[in-house]
Specification:
Strand content of chain B: over 45%
Radius of gyration of chain B: 13 Å
Oligomer: heterodimer
Largest sheet of chain B: 6 strands, mixed
Largest interface: A-B, 26 and 20 residues
Structural class of chain A: mainly beta
Structural class of chain B: mainly beta
Number of strands of chain A: 13
Number of strands of chain B: 11
Helix content of chain B: under 10%
Order of helices and strands of chain A: EEEEEEEEEEEEE
Order of helices and strands of chain B: EEEEEEEEEEE
Helix content of chain A: under 10%
Chain lengths: 115, 111
């Protein structure tokens, strides 16, 4: 099993450009998450999904959109990139049975620089 | 809003000693708490989970405690090794679908 994979690994964008980050998991997890990690700020949740076709906002959703058309994939879009979106982006997934939320499995991250 | 505090200063200890990392939170207690390890340039990796009705959990050289009175969790690594050097994150889950992560504490174990 590959676990959680993310593409691309690195990307440099100019201000105003758009891009999509792809996350894929092969563990049949119901829940998927997108985080950003900045120095001194820890992991902050951008958007998440509790199942195919559903999405919800996290702590810092502005400037991002997501889609979960298939259970195994979770896409994060930046419509008009800004320098403030320079960060490392992590995708994660987890099982959820009843009210138990299991541990999260993280991808390797995407390092995005917006100039 | 809920806040999580982890010591932002790096913890430096000698090989063989016990490392103790602290996670403090404000307001009400979470349903459970998780600890993750993160190496430079990589995603976090899950280590341990402890529920609000558990006081202690162990896994090999790792031990986690959860004190809902002090609003604190302690993460211990006994007989520490240089390979234990990493950043350790605590994460709290309340009655939602989300985890709230602390900023992490960097541990450096020197020979």
């Amino acid at each position: 099993n590959a676990g959680v994979t993310q593409t691309p690994k690195f990307r440099v964008l100019k201000t105003g450009q758009s891009m999509t980050l792809l996350c894929a998991q092969d563990m049949n997890h119901e829940y998927m998450y997108w985080y950003r990690q900045d120095p001194g700020m820890g992991l902050r949740l951008i958007h998440y999904s509790v199942g195919e076709g559903t999405t919800a906002k996290g702590e810092v959703p502005d400037g991002y959109n997501v889609s979960r058309l298939k259970k195994q994939n979770f896409l994060l879009g930046l419509e008009s990139a800004a320098p403030s979106q320079t960060s490392v982006y992590f995708c994660a997934s987890s099982h959820n049975r009843g009210h138990l939320l299991y541990e999260q499995y993280f991808g390797p991250g995407t390092r995005l620089t917006v100039t | 809003s809920q806040k999580i505090e982890q010591n932002s200063e790096a913890l430096n200890i000698q090989e063989g000693k016990t490392a103790t990392l602290t996670c403090n939170y404000t307001n009400y207690s979470p349903a459970y708490l998780q600890w993750y390890r993160q190496d430079p340039g990589r995603g976090p990796v899950f280590l341990l989970l402890i529920r609000e009705n558990e006081k202690e959990k162990r896994k090999e050289r790792l031990k986690v405690t959860f004190d809902t009175t002090l609003k604190q969790s302690l993460f211990h690594i006994t007989a520490s090794q240089p390979a234990d050097s990493a950043t350790y994150l605590c994460a709290l889950r309340y009655n939602t679908d989300k985890l709230i992560f602390g900023t992490g504490t960097r541990l450096q174990v020197f020979p």
